[in-house]
Automatic annotation (TrEMBL), chains A, B, C, D:
GO molecular function: isomerase activity; metal ion binding
InterPro entries: L-rhamnose_isomerase, L_rhamnose_iso, Xyl_isomerase-like_sf
Keyword Metal-binding: yes
Organism annotation: Microvirga aerilata
Keyword annotations from UniProtKB, A to Z: Isomerase, Manganese, Metal-binding
NCBIfam families from the UniProt entry: L_rham_iso_rhiz
Lineage of producing organism: Bacteria, Pseudomonadati, Pseudomonadota, Alphaproteobacteria, Hyphomicrobiales
Protein name as it appears in the record: L-rhamnose catabolism isomerase
Regions crossing the membrane: none
Length: 431, 431, 431, 431
């Protein structure tokens, strides 16, 4: 039996209140979709089967280099974090797995962690290594790089850390390693672009060699931050080179916030699918840089356009296409659990809308260069208010019609606020 | 007698080595400039009279939200920081003042601080308040804003903090208060733009009321970070409105890294001068966002173009024009003292180059729309290698011909590395 | 009687086909809104009263510096253009006025133009002057600027052209002049920022002096293009200075595509409203620069957020708030009439969605810093599929339920394709 | 004997005036460089051997979609253009080849063109095809694409045009074909990203098949414009895929103005060199978009950093490294000949500065992570005023010490202004 963090009675009571309205809305939408030849049940089933992993680090309050303002009941460790993740999944039924970050989530006994996950009904998604900061007691510093460091021993330490992440992941049932590094430079001349990338590739090859046969390795590109002049894995072009150099288990991870201003991200997604190297996503939203805001909160149409590419690829049975879906956000001004609930819903919303696109009509408009009707075909799907589908998918799976409301009713935050000591915020004096 | 942090003998020895070469280079450049009717001595004198304030927080190693990697001999407090600042001034003779940050630099007895500054030959530039992070023991949090917070008591607390900064500044001999706030929102709808700005203006008026008669108040705009959807003081347009609403002692501060991509910053500088509201600068450089890199390290021509506006304004005796020059950088991969030395030199370099512009020719080309020759007139000045002028200005004032070399010779970093305990770096787990 | 360009029978037949479905959808939405205490009829009425002007130049196929690809039946002159504009209004009932561009739309006898408009049921919105290109036979060139040119006679010519635009507008019943200039520079040094702006202000004052008492003058800012280094009226800060310098009949025009990357445009709108200087809009959408794409086609949520500010200002009875709504787009790959129909609908859509925002709830969440619920309050309104409201507003006013479909049924494009000779496209060799 | 467009006497007289000063400056710089162990003669020789191609379309005045303002003596055809190009080379001795654009430069008899080039001492660089605009009388339109068009016959027409370009090029002695297309879309949904790219690759393979054995084909990426939502060849990642799919004669062309804001272009250059696919450059400068301004006029340090990568690659004998150097600019406010003279000089300047980098020191600082000294090593080279080297290289090769001055003295523009009829400018009404 899965342990429930939100009392069944509270959830049932909240759903009870909203059941009739949902039923009416679902039927009205069903009628409307039926007119267009679409079965709402079929869409609801597909949505119910769409899952996204929650990042363990996402349930704690984030911050910026200027300050961090913790909230009530901040999780103290990975066990607390798993409980918070369980709440998200109980209410959304969309997030059955958690993605860990080592060393932040390192424990003495991974088996105990696995049991804790099992008890909460949670599995373990991709492992994330960390060589962008120095762990306590670490012998060599990553101040000037990790996998691409000029010093061979530092690179070796970083390689070994990644291998350790694989080993922990094997104990937990994970099947993928995500490698994001901050390596780069702050000033022209500081690094040699070519030698740095050669060293990076050598290190990655050493990690790749240790990758279990049924695992995938995801490399993640990012334009800038923490490096402010050059970044070793700066864009999808470099990321593609990496995946190609490493081999068939290597894929590119796309974080929606890691691109230059104005870049057409959905097109990058299409290219990586076409060349069989799309590994998956770190979902979030942004207005300026790597803002790590809640998915779909700034530009919901862009999120939809990304999902349009994913559904299109499904539709044409694209080869080697089985992307991993993960959220990667920083929650600075909201309750992290609420932001993750909302984001999981938004991601499913974009997926549901993309499923509604009339692909036959779209292709026909594209072929005849009817730009207006082609674009309206996407817009028609995007404009559909699919909330009844999302709610029904949650309800059917034992979740909440309105997960935020149910969460607030449950008093979970206040409860953990009592159990978990308050955390001091403030500034590091890093400006 | 001013206390010297760099032994006079070391400095003299280093200068001795380089004296003859400097003399030759200075003469060659002097001849070349003389051919164009320019007196190298006049330029050297002007450069020698150009000063820029060093930020107290700049002498510690900075960081990002991902990690901080401290260096050797990190300053423990404002007294250590002042000593590091003294080193910079001893070698560059360009940075006689320090800009403090409260509460980071708050001490029980400002008079003791003043004496320490006096002993080191340092004065105190603009005071900086901090309401973008929560100080230890602070009653109300700035998580959701400070001067624009919806809660009146929180705004009051922020106002009082600024007034306290003025009071400390008065004790230290400062003549200006710089107000930069992180207030804003991360999501559409989170804040009402209009009411937030009304509250901000009310708070600023309360601070302004307390401003001593011979002080100026500088408001500083920034496009984003720490807020990722909207920022209350987001650009120079809003900043200008603030300065106008407040009164004649209120001016706009321009931080070179706080603008949208591609924005023409030198034009903003020109507009603020023309409308008599340019207060001064936070100098640094950036490639992506508020990268806080060393001045002139990414786009030295842009720095020159800013100084071209300043010299042009001097040239035509622009009204109400007496900008404050301050550095505001984050030094993550260099010795902060070295980066500040370099930056002070770069700022003087841009000033010296701007002084070389043939303004009569420039105006004539502008009037006749000779775009090519007008732009070449600026380039001619920019291309001049003015290092001999900068070095001679330093040498004449008792500084170093090559301040980085002299600093390295002095062993200062190793010395303070012994006296000051090592600082742990690592990650906050904020991603 | 207004002359109809689309046969009444065709329109009626198309509406007939769609009437029942619309009725059902409208009722279902009405029920849903009623549950939230909102009267769908009240919203429909407000939408029906919302109008946006169509630009005369928008009904011709646009182009880029690389090429222009004309379509069938390109309008030959302003009389043809008015007929195309009439089609848009007949079908949408949202665009009763046309905005002219002089000299492109200059005719010998403005009264005849007025009569033509009257016959088609069209009025005349803001006049647009053109000093960014040289008209045939023009004495002095605007190659190096117009209102800010270094040459007084050229400035005078540009001033007189603007006065002529006012005079034509008076004959046509227009009540506003929009001034957008391309003045600026391509190279650092080419122009003196300060003197250029002084000259611009002087010229504008001369125009302002001639402005009829019941007219408004709108200045329009733009970051870049056609000038590629500096632009005299480059952003809202400068635009605000202009409106303030000129006087109470002067206002700022916001073109949604004229901003730096990532800029928060809705916040600029809010600031201009707060300081009583928002004149109106040039609606369009963009992904990169001034792309002039169909409104809402790239980022529909951004368009909604702009309207959220407008409705908020209405809601609180903001002073001096009566913005002009105009479309300004370039239609390169669609039938311009279709793009304008769609855009008019999208603009009304954003308005309708903004009307649905629960402003009481929003304010309460804002006051209590409930960032998540505040942002969801906006999203709830945005997610509502208001198409039934838009369609009913059109239908009630005599327009089309589905204006694109009705337009295509009408065969209008083929008809004018016969009457109007084909236009050669091709490239200017300008690259 | 090569025909001279600038009378030898005029050139000699201008050089005579400046010879002594140059000699003095060259000696002073030589002494300075010698102190650092560098032979000024060796650098001068390398600079003298560095050439860059001039684009035939660059000698006419450019324009924007808003207007074009022609100058005096606009070239009427490719024969006139070649004469203008000859002037540039006579004075700079840096531009011995011209890059043609078909059909703009198409002539009945390529042999006559070849003879004209021979007579002027000019060769022919890469051929440029044009499928981004419709040529007069062209059967099928490129309005909706060319090499990636949905219509097979249109694609075939575009393929054949490219093959024709190769054939013309063969007659002229060219050895490369540059393919830049405007294909893309203006609205989400308009094109299928994947199918478009498949079609593009098929078309390119058909062209590649026809490529002579000793030719190279360059594909050029561009973020946007003329397409404003998606572009088929949008970035270097896609460009790399193209070059890889096509084969060993296919390379990537980098235009400095075709990137997203803030992108680190020099790093892209390094990656393409490392993976053996850098074909060459279209040099220009930009502040906002594809501004096509004079090389080095906006950010000279960026141009230097690109050349730093090129010299570094030379230094380590990078494999498959022999980049083509071409200018691609639009001259809207200057005499095009002057802008091209200046740009050729700026490109050589960046090369000369990059040659001065102390690569041994740089590598050592990089290896030891001495970020400050590494970056200062680049800056030291950049700060060197290498104008005497450039001037001496020109003088030694028979060019001008000050080519702009000599050009102005020659009265060439006035002379051709008499022979070539004035061209009307004005606006296309495309906005």
């Amino acid at each position: 039996m899965t342990e429930q963090k939100i009392a069944a009675g509270i959830l049932a009571a909240d759903n009870e209140k909203r059941g009739n309205t949902l039923k009416a809305d679902y039927e009205a939408l069903g009628d409307k979709l039926a007119r267009g030849g679409i079965s709402i049940e079929a869409i609801t089933d597909k949505v119910a089967q769409f899952f996204v992993a929650v990042p363990s680090w996402g349930v704690g309050t984030g911050g910026t280099r200027f300050a961090r303002f913790p909230g009530q009941g901040e999780p103290r460790n990975i066990f607390d974090k798993l409980e918070d993740c369980a709440v998200i999944h109980e209410l959304t039924r969309a997030t059955p797995t958690v993605s860990l970050h080592i060393p932040w989530d390192k424990v003495d006994d991974p088996k105990r962690l696995k049991s804790h996950g099992d008890a909460l009904g949670l599995g373990f998604d991709a492992m994330n290594s960390n060589t962008f900061s120095d762990a306590m007691g670490q012998e060599r510093s990553y101040k000037f790089g990790s996998l691409s460091h000029t010093d061979a021993a530092t690179r070796q330490q970083a390689v070994e850390h990644n291998i350790e992440c694989i080993e922990i992941g094997e104990a937990l049932g994970s099947k993928a390693l995500t490698v994001w590094i901050g390596d780069g430079s702050n000033f022209p001349g500081q690094s040699d672009f070519t030698r740095s990338f050669e060293r990076y590739l050598d290190s990655m090859k050493a990690i790749y060699k240790r990758l279990p046969g049924d695992w995938r390795i995801f490399s993640e590109h990012k334009m800038y931050e923490p490096a402010f002049y050059s970044t070793v894995v700066q864009d999808w072009g470099t990321n593609y080179l990496i995946a190609t150099e490493l081999g068939e288990k290597a894929f590119c991870l796309v974080d929606l916030g890691h691109h230059a201003p104005n870049v057409n991200i959905e097109m990058i997604v299409a290219r990586l699918i076409q060349f069989k190297k799309l590994g998956g996503f770190h979902f979030n939203d942004s207005k300026y840089g790597d803002d790590d805001l809640d998915a779909g909160s700034i530009d919901p149409y862009r999120l939809f356009l990304v999902f349009n590419e994913l559904v299109e690829a499904e539709h044409r049975n694209a080869e080697n296409f089985h992307p991993a879906h993960m959220i990667d956000q920083s929650h600075n001004v909201t309750d992290p659990i609420e932001s993750l609930i909302r984001s999981a819903n938004e991601i499913r919303r974009a997926y549901a809308q993309a499923l509604l696109v009339d692909r036959k009509a779209l292709e026909s408009y594209q072929e005849s260069n009817d730009a207006l009707m082609a674009s309206e075909t996407l817009k028609d799907a995007f404009r559909t208010d699919v909330e009844p589908i999302l709610a029904m998918a949650r309800l059917n799976a034992g979740g909440a019609i309105d997960p935020i409301a149910a969460y607030r009713s449950s008093g979970y935050r206040a409860t953990v606020g009592k159990a978990r000591p308050a955390v001091a915020g403030g500034s590091s004096g890093i400006v």
